[in-house]
Input
Amino acid sequence: MKKNLSACTTVLVGKDATIDGSTMAARNDDTFGPLTPQRFVTYPAYHNHPNQVKAYLNKCVVDRPADGYRYQGTPNVNYKTEGVFDESGFNEKNVGMSATESVYANERVLACDPLNTESGINEDLIVAATLPFIDSAKDGVKYLGQLIAKYGSAEGNGVIFSDKNDVWYMEIVTGHHWVAERIPDDAYAVTGNRVAIQQVDFNDPDNFMWSEGIQEFVEKNHLNPDKYGWDFRHIFGTADVFDQHYNTPRQWYGHKVLNPSVEQDPLDFDLPFIMRTNHRITLADVQKILSSHYQGTPYDPLGHGTEEQKHLFRPISLNRTQNSHVLQVRNDLPEAASTIMWMSFGIPTFTPYVPFFGNADDIDVSYRETPKKLNMDLKSAYWMYRALSMIVEAHHAEFAQDDLNYLKDSREYLYRWVSQVAPKVEGMSDNDACAYLSKETHKMVAEMAKRTKELMSKLIMHGLELSKLTFIMDKNL
Output
């Protein structure tokens, strides 16, 4: 089985840790190559229609219930060869799901419970098999756990579920075993492609869930290396030189952004998954982590360290980041407008996070229809934002300030837009709220396209002036 998406970064924040009382569940969706075109869609609800969902990358076929909720997804355009990979979205019950953060188990545990690569559940269909059928974040863990028990897992995956009260992180590490942890309300968590969950409290079912028989499985096969405690990362995870250069530095930098006074080592295998801060976390803080590349350290590929330092660690934001998203549930807004997916379709270092309400089901055509290749009319949001990313990075020293000004102005406009639009659905019926949010979102998307194309035109004109194919004639000749 080929797995195309295997290198992501996750940030999770509880409602009492945020500035506005929202829950936030965020992730970068990274691919092996720089171009894996995606689109943004809404799948309609259905009733009395039992069906199946089939994977394109292995032989997995999952039976689905006869009734399913409306839900969002960001599937691959070339799904027949690359898999569907719906990745992220909300359903009509205001439950969010982001899948997956690839994780890798060690050979000891896999020898005892191998992955079912032939027909187990994989990232290709995991959202479609789960999100239409869950009513809460915790319900999502339970439902997916039942699917893993029935079909097995084809790969190691970290899966996020969120609602207005809870954020759960579920790590599926072997063919049939997994653990999930609820992020405490007053805390946040950061991880990147390593098994993240640490000490598990089997006497606390309100904050931990696990696969049936996992304790007996570990004891029977002598898998716990620690004399004391039950550390999921130590038992099931890896700790090698690859982790130290590809994975742990991203977790280190996430903590550095949110806890700058805490000294940590980017090579430390035991960096904490969950931490607390002495300040309230903002949406911009989370976006800063996902769009980062070790700014302010010698490890920044766009910075001033040595060539060795600049290529020592894998950054968080990459040209392979196909979409970066923050699933936010705002408890201070009307229920119908409380779920917002902030999404960047370009490289998040250079492109804005655009807000989409979970209950605005009429997706703008610029996001809904993505061509397989770049068209120079730039009607596609995916290609427009990726083109902007390329232009800025090509002359980063000259264009960085203009891009930063554009991002700052975009955030101001988009924050104001949400604060003006969301309250107006108060008292509306579900259908009226959906129609209103969809109409206003179309206007917002058009405004962002206008602003983005104006910046691109400005930068291209400036870039033409930077050509090295020039010659200044001596006026005295």
Q: What stands out?
A: The chain has twelve helices and 17 strands. Confidence is low (pLDDT under 50) at residues 1-5.
